[in-house]
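#struct-queue
[09:14] JT: dropping the first one here, sequence first, then the structure tokens:
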Amino acid sequence: MEPPKHKKKLRKKGERIVRRNGNIVPQLKEKAVAPSVVSFPPTVPSSSKEGYWLLASFVSITAGIFSLPNFHVFLPPESLPACLFVYPSLLLVGFILMFSAFRRLPEGPERSEMPQWQANFWFTIFFALCAFSRFYRPEEPPPNFWSDVMIPSQNALGVIDNFNRPWFFRYGYGEPLYSYSLAGLWELFPKATGIWINRVDSGLLDLGTIWGLYLLGSVLRGRRMGLILMAFWAFSMPMTAWGYFIMGQNTAVLACVWVMVFFFRLIQKPTFPRFIYWGLAEAFGAYNYVPFRPWAPVMVTAVLLWILGGFKEKPKGAAPWILLTGLWLSWIFLFFNRNNFLPSDIPWVGVVLRPSILAVIGVLLVSAYFKTKAETVNSEANRKVFGWATGSILAVFLSSPVIFSPLYASRTSGMSVFHAGVNLEVLKLIWQQVTLFFGMMFYINQTGLPDYPVAWHSYFESFPVLAMVVGLACFIAKPSWRKIFILFLVVVGMTPFVLSNLQHSGRVEGAVAPLFLLGAWGLDYFWELFCREISSGFLRKIVFLLIFSLWAIDAHWSFDVIRQWMAGKGRDALLLQQIEKDWKPYRLILVQHYPELVSASSTMICDQKEVYLFHDPNPIYVEPGEKEKDIVLLMYGYDDVTQNRIKKEFPQAQWSDVTVPDPGHPRFFARALIPFDSLSESKGKALYIQKVPHEYWRRRFYERDYGVARGLIWWDERVPSLTAPPPPGMDVFVTARADGEMTLPVAGDYTFACDSCCYPTDLTIDGKTVLDLKPQRDHPVNANEKIHLTAGVHEVSYASFGDGFYTQNIKVISPGGRTWILGKTLPDGKSE
């Protein structure tokens, strides 16, 4: 019996793949030519002067770019390029020459696509380079590390502990994607430090962006443009820096890229599934960093205008017109209302938001929606309107948990330039910020805007800027609606920065993706024309190697700038550097001198490290005959009171200083190494020994607001019972871990139970998890777990909120039915 024949469309003999008007179409070659392999790039009989004109234009633009002071600094002093590239006017000359060349040269009816194997090779290279730049030294914190940096980590740990799972976070960068992605990654690697988990998460998000950029370029012009976009992104100076900032700003570019991918795929082939994918991308954007917000209504409007203006056939009947008009107005109203540009206290807005009015509008739109669906069979335009409406509704529905959060509107209202009304001063401020935007992006960032780290450098490095100049010449010389739309998206992307009264360079990220598109389109078009006009394969290879070398040198410069920035460590980064050296061989104690030493962010840099906070006096609990590690005290360099006391009480201490480049206060902190043998049991000293029995529990209380039992240890003690009195000054939000031993008289199945447990609780015995409770806020849970244990001594570790040691008890039920409270005594009075 013959196997069934699958109807698969095969490429015909002599058929090649070409791209025509942005679409890939098969085409038969003429039999007279019929080469076995399609040449890439296509050759022409002889070189034309236009090819050399293009090359001269590109060289002039390059010389002009490196004549600008923000890029001239990268040239080696007194080198030939540094001596030659001193005329910024060459940039304008090259732009005019490139524009005129693009105007004169006709666009070819078709262009050969890059072979798949070549695209795969370069895709792998650029993807790997991006991974290298983003994951380089993942334990390294940003140099200007401060308390805001750990807000996403605090959010993520709240999610993991099931104590705080909002759709929009109250503090810091409230959009949830970054914090929830951190939480998911932390669930996979629970022992990872906060800095490592953030760096890895940011890197993975950037890998998602570079993949989207390749698809975006491939949709618009082909694989080569996608690879150019990947090259821009792999060592992008601002985007690498934002990834190292570990605060989630890079998610704005991720959202912009993927919504453009599905937008251009939709207009390429408007099938119903592609309307759904586009709606999903719109909804995804709402969960990302705030600069994406203006993109949502713009993309909804763009698809609608394309439906109405891109085809001769118009929607038939009243229903589709009612649907598209009502739904579009609802979308725009929702955007302005939820971003507080049309607050509910405006009288007419309040009228619109009345339940009765909303009900009437809802009934009208639902009726029009189903009526339009019924008429899609006989009208292609109605089918597109129905698809657009479905995608738009899906986007609103899936993003509603975020956009209807009360915190969503307050995120932008307080920072808007219009919060006090519209007047002449506001218009002046807007114009000032427009000029600041372009100056920062392409010239010298003299202000060092928060939080962009690389002051005195432009936002973008030289190679993308060079390509953007070529792209602008291309867009002006050969305009099309796609090119105009990309330029418009640049304006859309800059509005969060321009309309904010709090200058923050992270708010320009909505403009990054369309600016990269501008540059990649221009460079791809330049190379297409150059290869068409130049017949010499040798010359094409030389020019390609020169352009690739220019990108490679620029990538090296950009990475060096980032490394120099990371080397200029701030106070917390220097503290972490010292902690890494001392916490394993010594008992490391930090002496707080707020805000210079030990701030709110210090608990994150101590994550998964045994580092203690100094108390005066500070007991060191040891068992009889036990020898602790030698002690290292880190103190603020100008804390003379503490230093003088330590020098007086411990003359054997060895001292050293860590300095910072601050002329006024160069000594950042002092380090004292105190031998353990120099400690005594005298309670009058800052540090003293307190001997305790082996049976005592060890309780460690941790700094608040950073998960459960992780970070900087606020207090360390040995107590006879878990319910011993709390240390003085303990905050109810402090978490704790208790470690001890439990001696069981007989083997068997033991039950561990917790009634009305309202705090996150983690109980392990001999390293095995017995209870892992994560009750929701104000919703206590009951737990009852059975485990087989042998007779004898067992190691017990119990983590919860410090207050949980006193308000919730873990009952232990033996095989014989005896019950006692963990950390106390057995019913017969014997110790556990």
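[09:21] JT: and here's the second one, same format:
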Amino acid sequence: MYRIESLLSGRLFLRPQLVEDRLYFISNLSGRLSLYAMDLGGSVPEPLLPPDLALQNPHLLDGESFCVLPRLGKILVMIDHDGDENYQPCLIPLAGGYPEPAFGEQLAHYRVHLFKCDPERGLAYFSAEARHAQMMAAFRGDLRTGGLEQMGQSPWGCFVAGVSGDHSHVILVDVFLTGDHVVYLWKKGTGPDGRKLLYGTPREQRTPGEPVTLNAINRCFFTPRHRGLLFITALFSDAFGLGYFRLNHPEAMKPVTVRGAAHGDAAGELVNLTHLDGDRYLVEYNLDGCSWLYEGVFDESTLTMKLGAVICGRGQLAGGVLESVHYDRPNNRYALAFSSATSPTQLYVVSGARRSAVKAQTRERVLGIPADLLSPGEPAPFTTFDGLRVSARLYLPAPALDFKGPRPLVYYVHGGPQGQERPDFAWFSMPLIQYLTLNGFAVFVPNVRGSTGYGLSYVKKVDRDWGGDDRLDHVHALKVLAGDARLDVRRAAVVGRSYGGYMSLTLAARHPELWSAAVDMFGPYDLLTFSERMPESWKPYFRDSIGDPADEKDRAFMAERSPRTYIQQITCPMLVIQGHNDPRVAEQESRDVVERLRKMGKSAELLVFENEGHDVLKYENRVRCYNEITEFFKRYLKP
């Protein structure tokens, strides 16, 4: 039988930065995520951090994980402690070393996120969550002097969304709910309260019940001489597009026409915009989970973005997920990380006049498992109970494995809820999916309402409706899957992480007849205690997105949507997995589940990783976690 160690032999290579002829990147080469460098073209990777330190999964980190500063001879690295997410900006020498706080103790009481860094000038921009108050602040830091300048603060984010080339103008955005953004302009010298409203209506100026037009403005870039602002917005397309306004007339926003796309009419979203130089940009799309990346040229006079060379989406960079991309401006080339459902993350350098030179820098592979035994998955969209189309993928054991008869089903629910399951080997789920198929299971992965990747209105369908129509989508999916002769839905299990853990608990408790086993990975059990235990700076957002525990009506609603209310109805065995340092879903949430089930005489197992947070990242923990889940399902589903 194949081992999970074979799948995990393909190590992670994430967030590459190409500086001169050196590649800097995050990898778990040592069994934990850390920072490395190697020569372009290949050399033995050199560790840049002490072996006792572990970096966070970049997918859980808002902003950047690190920035190379060759002029300063330093690297700026965001450091937390074993997943507690209390990130602090630290500096190490370019050749590596022990990290020292970049700004002394000035940010010690914040959870800090790096949103932009200028290696030439040594300036960095941070959004910082107060650790003991419902407030966030935006800072500009001078990495040469250690000086900090506060640009503004707000309970709603004050996120850094754009910085002018000369650093005189900054765009700050408050986010009340997904898509409900208010945009401010800050100018150098105006101090910590110098934000000027550009677009949207601040919360304090709204009347109760006032309708709000969702703009979702993000990824903002100043045009030459600060004449205008180019950005991503949902005002002109539910699947997001580009918008523009003159800084002196922000109310006169106009759409930007995008021409030259080569990806056809596949369902998806415009997800990223990056300025290269002059009028050149990178434009990225997520098309039903797969990445397409273009170079584009913006014409401010005609408000047109003309797409040109395809960086990702064709050839060997097709059918998978672009983890990140970095533009090496002096040499006009790109470093990127890319993976698919069957290939671990690889580092590539893309160059040439038409970007046709694609050279792999790594050769990560799954050991001892022939490629034809891995499952690429197949599209499995369905129409749900109210006529809404739901995208999904079904992973079946490879024919070469020669399993006989209908396969027991593992139903996998992604986190978020405003997330998306993608064919991405860099994320926790894909090694698990492949390991389950190797053991004879079929794995169904839906992106039900509330998921990203299918337009803003689709994402918004889960606001203040956790455990409502999203739950019914999952229940309906089981009815659809029952008609597939390749599956045996009478032997079905559900598993999910974070919000997916919440949904696994909800489905096991409210629809016990559907499941033979369930796994909850750090999922909220009681929405009221979950809201009380989360970080203070998160509470304003979650009061809007789930409910306000201080409001009597909301409190009753949150109780009604909590798995705790229905826990006595669970009949299947339950495995609960938790990271001790998790700041998002406190360990006690998981302990509450297991203690309550055991008191009722039900089967409940608890697995706590003492040195993990809201993820399972360290090699020995991943091996145990994947094995525990798979053996648990084998015990009760008998593939």
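[09:30] RK: nice, looked through the second one.
[09:31] RK: The two ends are 13 Å apart (CA to CA).
[09:31] JT: good to know. The mean pLDDT is 95.
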